[in-house]
Amino acid sequence: MLPLHHNFFLMNRRADISIFTSLLFLILFQGCVAKRLGKQAARFESAGMFAKAADLYYKASLKKPNVVEFKTGLRRSGQIHLEELSQLVNQAYINRDYHKAVYDFLALKGFLNKVKYAGVELNIDYSTQRIFENARELYLSDRYEYGQKLIGESDFDEAKKVFNEIHQILPDFRDTRSYLNMATIEPIYLRGVNLFSQRKYMDAYQEWEKVTMYDGGYKDVNSLMHQALNERYKEGVLFLINENFSAAALALGEVYKKNPKFEDVKNLYVEARNEPIYRSAMVDLNAGKCRAAYYGFEKVIADAGAYKNADAKRKRALDCAQYPIALATGKISDNQKDAIEFENTLINTLLKKRDPFLKIHKLEIVNSTLMKALKKETLIPDRNQLKELHDKNGIKAVLTLLFSNYRKADGALEDRQKTGFERKKITITTGETIFDDKKVTYYEYQKENQFSIEISYQLISTLTGEILLSDKLNGAETDKIHYAIYDGDTKILYPAVKIDNNYFVDDKNYSSLQALLKSSQQITTPDKQRDKVYGVLAEKISASLSNFNPER
Asked: Given this model, what pLDDT does residue 551 score?
C-alpha cells in the first residue's frame, strides 16, 4: 500500500491533468468555432450581405482577438455596412421621416460602438452627422411641442413618456428637464390639492412631501404643506377643547411627528396623551384606590415628567397604598435555626421583587412583647393585639408562618465488602486464549440525604381580623449516591456470583459494576436541600403576597 501523502500527491496530479485537459479542449473548441464563423463571414461578404458578414466577423474576433484576418474582414464589411446605414439615414431625411432618420442614426452609432469593442475603428461621413443633427432638431422640436400640449391637457403620463424620450436622445434639449420634472411632479402636487379639498390634511401633506423630494421649491408646495399642518393642528386643538383626547392625540401627534416645533403642538400633544390618564388616577386616588392611582401617575411621569405635579400625587398615592406587614414566625422544635433561615429567605425574596407597596417587618422587632405573648401553636393575635399593632405600629396585616412535618436527615454512609474477580486474557503455547481469574475484594457505598417540611401561612388584617390569605405548602428534596471503589485495575474487575458457597465470575453484570465504579461520590447536603426547598416555597408565598391587592 502506498503512503497517504503519496496518494494525495497522485490525486492532485490527476486533478491538475484534468483541469489542463479541459482548458486545452476549450481553447481548441473556441479556435474551431472562430474558424467556422470566419468562413461563414467570408461567404456572406462575397454574396454582398455585409451586415451579416460584419456580425460574424465580430463574433469571430471576440473568440480569437489575435487573428488579423477577422479584424480586417470586420473593418472591410463593417465600413460598407456603415455606408448602408448612412444611406438609410439620408433617405429618411429626404422623405421628411425625421423619426426614422434619428433612430436609424442611433442604430448606426450602436453599430460603431459594437465594432469598437472588438478593436475596430470605423468612420462616419461628415454629411451624415450633419443630416442627423438637423433631423434631431426637427424631430425633437415636434415632440417638444406635443409634450407641451399634453401638459396643457393634464395628460401627465403621456407627457412624461414624450419628455423622457427627448431626454434620452438629447438631455439638454431646451427646458426638457423642467417639463419632465413637471410631468412627474404635477400629478402628485394635484393629488395633494385634491386631498386637501377633502380635508384629508395629512394625506395631502404626504403627497406634497413627495413633491419636495423631486423639487424643494416647486410652486407653492412649502406654503401648502404649512397650511395642511395648520389645519390638522386646529382639528387637534378643537378635539382637545371638547375633551376628545384620543382624537386630539392622533391629530396633534401627526403634526408633531412632521414638525415638533409647530406652534405649541408639543405641549398640547403631551396634554392630549396624559390628561385622561391623570384624571383617572385622580379619581382612583380620591376613591381610595391608591395602587391604581400610583400606577396611573407613574405612566404620566414616564411620558410627561412633572405634568400637573404628578410626582407629588404619586408620592401621596404611594403613602396611601403602602401595606406594612408584620411577620410572625413559628418555631421548629429541634432546629430553630432552620425556622429563622426560612424567615430570612422569604424577606429577601420579597425585597428582590421591589414591590413599592409591600413593607415587611419582623413582629419581634415591631412589638417584641406581643410576639412573646402569642400562642406558639397558632401565632394568631387576638382582636386587641391586632388593634394595637394597627394603631400604635401602623401595621395593616400580620403574616404567620407555622412549620410541621419537618425532616432533615443526613444519612450514614453504608459500606459493603464485595467479592469480585480480576479477569485477564492469556495466550498459551498452543495459541489458544484463556481467562485467568483472580478473586479480589472491592467495596460498595450507599448514602441518602433528605429534607422535607410543611409550611402553613396566614395573612390576617389588623383592622378587621379577617384572614386575607391562607395556604399550606409542602416541599421535599432527596439525594442518593451509590458507587464502588477498587484499588486495582477497575477495567478488568468483574462482580462475583455465589453458588453453593463457591464464587464465580458474573460477566452479565460487568457493565453495572463498571457504572458503579464511575458513579459520582458527591451528594447534596441536607442544608443545600433545605435552601432549595426554602427558595421554592418562599417564591410561592412572595408571589401570593405580591398578587394580593387589599384595595379590591
From this structure: 87
Closest CA to 278 of 294, 260, 300: 300
> Whole-angstrom Cα distance, residue 420 to residue 423?
10
Alpha carbons 326 and 374: distance in angstroms, whole number: 13
| Type of residue at 104 | D
Classify each residue of 525-536 as buried b or exposed e, where b means 16 or more C-beta atoms within 10 Å of its C-beta.
ebeebbbebbbe
* Mean pLDDT for the chain overall: 90
pLDDT tens digits along 147-202:
899 888 888 889 889 988 999 999 999 988 888 888 888 899 999 999 999 999 99
Per-residue pLDDT, 10:
47
- The span from the CA of 387 to the CA of 465, in Å, is 9
Whose grid coordinates read 432549595?
532
What's the length of the chain?
552
Give alpha helix (H) positions in 47-152: 50-63, 68-94, 98-117, 126-152
CB 520 within 8 A of CB 481: yes
Neighbour tally for 363: CB within 10 Å: 24
Q: What does the pLDDT read at residue 24?
A: 40
Q: Helix (H, G, I), strand (E, B), or coil: what is residue 359?
A: strand
Give the whole-angstrom CA distance, residue 103 versus residue 137. Answer: 13
Phi, psi of 122 (to 5 degrees): -120, 160
Distance separating alpha carbons of residues 285 and 296, to the nearest angstrom? 10
Closest by CA to 387, choosing from 323, 321, 461, 325, is 461
What pLDDT was estimated at residue 64? 83
Q: Name the residue ranges covered by the structural domains of the chain.
A: 4-124, 156-263, 278-321, 410-452+469-529
pLDDT at 71 over 80: yes
At residue 21, the pLDDT reads 43
H/E segment holding residue 484: strand 467-485
* Stated pTM of the model: 0.64
- 8 A C-beta contact, residue 96 and residue 136: no
